[in-house]
Amino acid sequence: xxxxxxxxxxxxxxxxxxxxxxxxxxxxxxxxxxxxxxxxxxxxxxxxxxxxxxxxxxxxxxxxxxxxxxxxxxxxxxxxxxxxxxxxxxxxxxxxxxxxxxxxxxxxxxxxxxxxxxxxxxxxxxxxxxxxxxxxxxxxxxxxxxxxxxxxxxxxxxxxxxxxxxxxxxxxxxxxxxxxxxxxxxxxxxxxxxxxxxxxxxxxxxxxxxxxxxxxxxxxxxxxxxxxxxxxxxxxxxxxxxxxxxxxxxxxxxxxxxxxxxxxxxxxxxxxxxxxxxxxxxxxxxxxxxxxxxxxxxxxxxxxxxxxx
Length: 309
What we know:
This protein is an alpha/beta fold.
């Protein structure tokens, strides 16, 4: 009766890693319990999400090495893995499940960066041109939410204009507005196959400094002005202060991503008997909600939804 913070499956977004093949499952060593799956199994996951009341699935493609290039041109192929997966899920689940599509070039580039590299630097405007085409292809395939995770300047406004011009004004934009240059992304980069491509390079020139708070306010204000419908903080638990400050400052839905490193810490500690998995995972979900997040991207989404039932 007096509980102040509540959690439902509708607060959850389930990230799914998709690979080529049929009836194919590939475990991710650094993320126990998470797998790369072929399109047919991704569709089955989406049906489970719908039945559990989870709001959306988020699709992340594992691009074959042969299709990667310096400029990530495969992102513009309307028949690429993420577009085929989106269409298959939309055909099976209809409008009863949201589909979030990642917009960035790191799954498609040989160097692992989120944009095109020119003279050893990521070329912002050239990258944004490609992101607009990528977003339009994903909207045509049937996605509900475009989620630019690249952190290029001005990309939200350009993508919004491109979508509207093609008749996709109903497709929402969930901007990775406060995405920090974090070491907690390591297992994700293993999962999508960009870790080896990135090598020892960092993304500090376009992702945010973990020391900065006020910068997050500026980034979010810019994205809202450009037309973002939802803004995201990434990673999650180490940045709960950012979630709360954004929630208290801006009248816009706030999403948070419990990233791969956070998942791995909780999962591995639980497997070692140091923590009780269900208790600590649910506590982390409540922490996100208490800080002000309305949507939580988490690899625990299916388990959390089952526990809530």
